[in-house]
């Protein structure tokens, strides 16, 4: 192999491994009014790959994003009302999080990291969470999202 061909194949390998391992950043907005209703995260359901991160943007003030339930081995997160917080997700499975002041209005969201290994536990966590939702019109917001998106 010529020197140039060696160099070219080396570059190809580097580029390819970058594509395979590149982790992405996604944005979830915290909104008073969104396309899916009032007091919502958008998107409320997001599927990401292992190692990706999510930036929670407090587009409207007074919201947070706090873990309700996650796969075993994952660390809970809390955005603490900061304008922008980035959380990295290294543990596969489904995560349920809420906005503390608006949880009773079903301000919550679901994150699926690669697989749905904790599907059974998550269905129970969502049922418990919905028991605390006070607004009848959005009572099943999370279970609807779950049933629609989680296979
Ligand atoms: Cu909120």
Basic shape: elongated
The CATH architecture comes to Sandwich
Tell me how many strands there are: 8
Biggest sheet details = 4 strands, mixed
Annotated CATH homologous superfamily? Cupredoxins -  blue copper proteins
Number of helices: 3
Give the uncertain stretches in residue-range form.
none
Helix percentage range: 25-40%
Bound chemical compounds: copper (II) ion
The percent range for strand residues is: 25-35%
Query: Order of strands side by side in the largest beta sheet?
Result: 2-1-4-6
Determine the CATH topology: Immunoglobulin-like
> Average pLDDT across residues?
93
Report the C-alpha radius of gyration, rounded: 19 Å
What string gives the helices and strands in order?
A: HEEEEEEEEHH
Explain how this protein is built.
With 151 residues, the protein is an alpha/beta fold. Helices cover 26% and strands 30% of the residues. The strands form 2 sheets. It has a 4-stranded mixed beta sheet, with no helix packed on it. Strands 3-8-7-5 form a 4-stranded mixed beta sheet, with helices on one face. A hairpin with a 2-residue loop joins strand 1 (25-34) and strand 2. Helix 2 (119-130) packs antiparallel against helix 3 (141-149). The chain starts with a helix and ends with a helix. It binds copper (II) ion. Copper (II) ion is lined by residues 39, 63, 99, 101-102, 107. Residues 39, 63, 99, 101-102, 107 line the site of copper (II) ion (CU).
């Amino acid at each position: 192999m010529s020197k140039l061909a060696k160099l070219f194949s080396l570059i190809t390998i580097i580029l390819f491994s970058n594509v395979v391992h590149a982790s992405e950043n996604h944005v979830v907005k915290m909104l008073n009014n969104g396309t899916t209703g009032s007091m919502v995260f958008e998107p409320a359901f997001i599927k990401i790959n292992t190692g990706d991160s999510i930036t929670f943007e407090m587009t409207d003030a007074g919201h947070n994003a706090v873990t309700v339930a996650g796969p075993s081995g994952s660390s809970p997160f809390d955005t603490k009302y900061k304008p922008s917080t980035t959380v990295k997700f290294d543990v596969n499975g489904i995560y349920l999080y809420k906005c503390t002041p608006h949880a009773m209005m079903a301000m919550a969201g679901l994150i699926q990291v690669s697989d749905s290994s904790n599907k059974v536990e998550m269905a129970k966590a969502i049922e418990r969470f919905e028991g605390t939702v006070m607004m009848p019109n959005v009572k099943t917001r999370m279970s609807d999202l779950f049933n629609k998106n989680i296979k």
